[in-house]
Amino acid sequence: MNPLERLSGWISESRNIVFFGGAGVSTESGIPDFRSQDGVYHQEYRYPPEQILSHSFFRRNPEEFFRFYRNKMLYPDARPNGAHLALAKMEKQGKLAAVITQNIDGLHQKAGSGNVLELHGSVLRNYCRRCGKSYELGEILRAEGIPRCGCGGVIKPDVVLYEESLDMEVLNRSAAAIAQADMLIVAGTSLTVYPAAGLIDYYQGSRLVLINKTPTPMDSRADLVIAGSVGEVLQEALEEHQY
Question: Where is the active site (predicted)?
Answer without folding.
Answer: 120
